[in-house]
Amino acid sequence: MIVTRFAPSPTGRLHMGHALSAILAHDMARAGGGRFLLRIEDIDGTRSRDEHVATIVDDLAWLGLAWDGPVVRQSARLDRYAAALERLRQMGLLYRCYCTRAEIADAMSAPHGPVAAYPGTCRGVPMRDAPHCWRIDMAAAVARVGALSFTDYARTIAADPLAQGDVVLARKDAPASYHLAVTVDDAAQGVTDVVRGRDLFEATHVHRLLQALLELPVPRYHHHALLTGADGERLAKRHGAPTLAAMREAGEDGRAVAARLRAGEGWGDMPGAGQSVALPSRPAHPTFGS
Ligand code: GLU
Ligand code: ZN
């Protein structure tokens, strides 16, 4: 049975890109007689707000999307992430990182140009009593599991988690990071198909590695194109795209908005978009909100 999920972080209001992810995940489950789950990714206790959870629920109803089963909140599952973290620590793959935000920003803007990933400053430094997050020693982890791949729509992708560097698996203020929580939860909830934006494609390489280390099942991935505005620019909040709540309050018909997204309006032109049989096909160069 197909199981998909929509997994928003309640740190702000949803916009059209979230609506597209939710609709595609919902429709894939419905087309296959499967289940569509709602998971609230609220491990960030300082930025998550209950009022945003309430708005997410209203937004989904407005779009005409219903989910199956109880809403899962990551804040209620911290012990699971801690257990997974402990397992990785036992494997000797984690180290403490004491760097401050400023130090990391500094290290990543090296004289020879910005570097893409954390350069491993704290790997091998003596343990001390100071606030720290936990990072994975990516080279050691990759050496342990060997070559991995995942599917993105119909394509097979060779996983390259090394390019993401020694990512954080537990934050200074939480026993998990996005990467760890999402991997543990997709497995725990029996998610067979992860539908999410192309902006999370790189993260999937890390998730695939964690699945191998933690011996978890591997879902199929569907990284959909990102919405673009009439100017071809990515529709994101910084371009002043309206939130779903604002559209609702302005009296727009959410089901009509969903129908336009299903028809392909506003889809970008990234490889892999809309290629699955369960997803609507995508016109060549559509735009939204022109
Ligand atoms: N919580 C993530 C976000 O809102 C999405 C997680 C996912 O789909 O894997 O960006
Ligand atoms: Zn560090």
UniProtKB/TrEMBL annotation:
Boundaries of every Glutamyl/glutaminyl-tRNA synthetase class Ib catalytic domain copy: 2-243
One GO biological process this protein is involved in is: glutamyl-tRNA aminoacylation
Asked if the Swiss-Prot or TrEMBL record annotates the protein with the keyword RNA-binding, the reply is no
Bilayer-crossing regions:
none
Family label: Belongs to the class-I aminoacyl-tRNA synthetase family.
Q: Which Gene Ontology cellular-component terms appear in the entry?
A: cytosol
What Gene3D superfamilies does the entry give?
A: HUPs
Q: Which InterPro entries match?
A: aa-tRNA-synth_I_CS, Glu/Gln-tRNA-synth, Glu/Gln-tRNA-synth_Ib_cat-dom, GluQ/Sye, Rossmann-like_a/b/a_fold
Task: Kindly provide the name given to this protein in its UniProt entry.
Answer: tRNA glutamyl-Q(34) synthetase GluQRS
Q: Which UniProt keywords apply?
A: Aminoacyl-tRNA synthetase, ATP-binding, Ligase, Metal-binding, Nucleotide-binding, Protein biosynthesis, Zinc
Q: Write out the ranges of the annotated region (Disordered).
A: 269-290
Q: Name one GO molecular function term.
A: glutamate-tRNA ligase activity
Native organism is Sphingomonas adhaesiva
